[in-house]
C-alpha cells in the first residue's frame, strides 16, 4: 500500500506518510540514522552511500519497504514495513496470518514537542492497520531500548519473549488491531 494516510491531531499537527525515495531521501535519512539518538538503528558509522544503498535494497525487496513520515508537510520520521516471514524475523518466531513487521525512527530535534513520539507511533500503527489484510504488527526492539518499549506498550504491544538476532538480543512483541484500538481509543483519536 503506497497511498498516503493522514492523521490530524489538534495539539500536535497533521501527519502524512509517503514512500521513501532512496536517491532523493538518502541525505535526509543519513542524518537521522547516524545521529547519536538513533544508536539502536545500528547505522551510526554509515556513510551517505551506505544509506542510499540500504534503501535501494529495501525498495527493490519484494517483502520490505520504507516510508517518510511528514509532520505538517515536513519530513519527521522514518517507517520500515516488512513481511516478518521473509525479513528480519524469518524462522525466529511463530508467524500468524496477517502479521506485518515494523521499524520506526523519529528524526532528531533540538526542540522536542511533548507527545510527539507517541503521535508518531500512533500514526505508524494507523498507517499499517489501514491495510485490511494486516491483523497484527510485530516488532523486535533491542532489549535495552526501554524508551521504545514504553511507547510500544502505550499503543498496545505485548512482549511475547526475548529472541536472539544476529545483531542484537530483542524483545519480540506484537499488537493486534484490537489491542491497538483499546490502547489508543480506536476511532476516538
UniProtKB/TrEMBL annotation:
Residues covered by the Acyltransferase MbtK/IucB-like conserved domain: 18-65
Origin superkingdom: Bacteria
Pfam families: Acetyltransf_8 (PF13523)
Protein name according to UniProt: Acetyltransferase
Organism annotation: Streptomyces anulatus
Amino acid at each position: 500500500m503506497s497511498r498516503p494516510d493522514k492523521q490530524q491531531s489538534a495539539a500536535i499537527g497533521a501527519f502524512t506518510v509517503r514512500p521513501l525515495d532512496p536517491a532523493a531521501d538518502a541525505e535526509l535519512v543519513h542524518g537521522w540514522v547516524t545521529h547519536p539518538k538513533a544508536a539502536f538503528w545500528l547505522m551510526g558509522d554509515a556513510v551517505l552511500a551506505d544509506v542510499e544503498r540500504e534503501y535501494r535494497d529495501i525498495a527493490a525487496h519484494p517483502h520490505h519497504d520504507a516510508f517518510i513520515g511528514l509532520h505538517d508537510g515536513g519530513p519527521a520520521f522514518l517507517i520500515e514495513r516488512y513481511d516478518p516471514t521473509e525479513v528480519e524475523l524469518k524462522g525466529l518466531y511463530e508467524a500468524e496470518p496477517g502479521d506485518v513487521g515494523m521499524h520506526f525512527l523519529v528524526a532528531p530535534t533540538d526542540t522536542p514537542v511533548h507527545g510527539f513520539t507517541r503521535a508518531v507511533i500512533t500514526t505508524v500503527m494507523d498507517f499499517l492497520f489501514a491495510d485490511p489484510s494486516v491483523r497484527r504488527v510485530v516488532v523486535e526492539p533491542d532489549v535495552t531500548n526501554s524508551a521504545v518499549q514504553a511507547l510500544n506498550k502505550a499503543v498496545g504491544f505485548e512482549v511475547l519473549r526475548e529472541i536472539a538476532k544476529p545483531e542484537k538480543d530483542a524483545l519480540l512483541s506484537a499488537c493486534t488491531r484490537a489491542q491497538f484500538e483499546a490502547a489508543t481509543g480506536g476511532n476516538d483519536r
